[in-house]
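User: Fold this, then the next.

Assistant: Folding the first:
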Amino acid sequence: MIQDYQCNRVFFSALLRDCCPKTFHGLTSALDIHGVTWSLLSGTRDIWCRDYMPLQIYPGKLAGYRYYPDYLLRNERDKATITDTELVCRMNGLRCDSSLASVVLDGGNVVKADGRVIMTSKVFEENPGVDLSWFIDHFERTVGAHMVVLPWDSNEEFGHSDGICRYIGNDRVLMTNYADFDTKMAVRFRRALEAHFEKVEELEFNSGKVHKYSWAYINWLQTEQVLIIPSFGIPEDSQALEQISRLMPEYAGSIEQVDASDLVIHGGCFNCCSWTIRDEQTYNLP
C-alpha cells in the first residue's frame, strides 16, 4: 500500500477553492514551492475528498469502497452531499476498481503505517451483519496491510483515525493531544497502539486552556517532498511545529505551516481535504 511519505501528487475537491480560499491558496502555494503537482477534482459534493476517494494500493491500482457514512444519512440535505466516487473517478480520468465495493468506509479512517493501517472500530459499526473475520481478512488481503484497530470514541461521530494519530516512521506513531479532551480515551488509544508499534509519542502543549482546534495539527498534509502543518494564530502553532520537526527530521527544511482557520471551522483539516497518490505515469491522469 502506498504510504503518505511516498506520495508525489495531491488532489483537492474543486469546491475547496471557493469554500476555503485562504486554506486553498496557502496549500497550493506551499505545494508549488516544493514542486509538488496538484490538481482539482470535478464532480465532488463536498470538500473532504480524503473520505470518498479510493485507496492507492500501488501505482496503477486504486481500490474503491462504498462511501456511505451514517453521519450523512440524518436528513436529505446531508445525504445530498455524499459524493459518488465512481462518477468522480470517471470524470477525472482515474481508473478505480471495485475490490472493496462491499465495504462501507471513510478514507479518513485509514492511517497508513508501513504494512499496517490504523482504523477505529467505527468501521465495524458501519458494516453491521458482516462476518468480522471475513471483513478483516478481505480488507487486509486487498490493501496488503495488517489492520490495527483503535476503540471508537462514540462522542466523536466521524470515528476517523486521522484525527487521532499519524505514522512518523521507524515504527513510531504520533498521537494528537487527545488527553487534553478525554484522558481515558487517550489511554485506550495509547494502549492499542503500543501493542503494534515500538514507540507512541503524543503532542503536548503548555499554553494554558486547551484550544479547541489544537487536535488538528495531527491532520497534516504529507507528501514525499513536503509536510504541511496547519496553523490557527494561537501559541500552540509554534509548539506543534517544534515537536513535529524534532520527531520527523527527514523533513528538515521541508515543513510548512499554512493558516487553516477558514477550513477547520467546517470540522476537518489538511489530510481531510486532500487526496494524495504516488504518480509514476503508469496510467493517464489529468
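Now the next one, as you asked:
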Amino acid sequence: MNPETEFREGLDALATNYYNILNLLGEDPQREGLQKTPMRVAKAMQILTRGYTQDAHKVLTDALFEESYNQMVIVKDIDFFSLCEHHMLPFYGKAHVAYIPNGYITGLSKIARVVDIFSHRLQVQERLTQQIKDCIQDTLHPLGVMVVIEARHMCMQMRGVEKINAVTTTSDFSGAFNQAKTRQEFMNLLRGE
C-alpha cells in the first residue's frame, strides 16, 4: 500500500468529521480556501497513522540473516515524526537504536522502518521507545537492545508551557544493556567518542 495514493476505509467519514470541526471552530468550510481542507486533513491523518496497518515484526523477519557477529550494531539519528495522543499535535526528533546479535542480524534499513511504523501511530514518547525495543527483542532475540529517543513536542512548544527549546529524552534497554558498561559504550558511540 502506498500511503500517498491508497487510503484506508473510513476516509469519507473522517473528512465529514473534519468538515464539522471547521464549523465548530467558527469557520466556513464552504469558503474557497477551505473547500478541500476536510479531505486533505483526512488523507493526511491516514498517512500520519499508517503504522496501524503495518507489521513491524514482519519487516524485521523479511530481512533476517544468519550471522555470527556478536558485537554492538547501532543505527543512530533516525529521523521520525509522530502525533502525541493527548493533543494530536506532532512530536519529532531522532531515535538511536542498538542491538547485539545472537546468531541473526536484520537489514539496517529495517531498524529505521520499525521506528517509522511505531511512530506513525498516536503515541507517547515513552511507549514509542518501549515498543521499538520490545519489537527488536521479541523478533530477533538478540543479546540485548537499547533505544534512546530525543524529541521536541509541539504540545509543549505551541500551547501549555510554550517552551520552544525543551527536548525530551527517553531510553529503554534489555539484556546485555542492563550492564552499565555496555550502556556507556552505546552512549559514547552516539556522541562519537
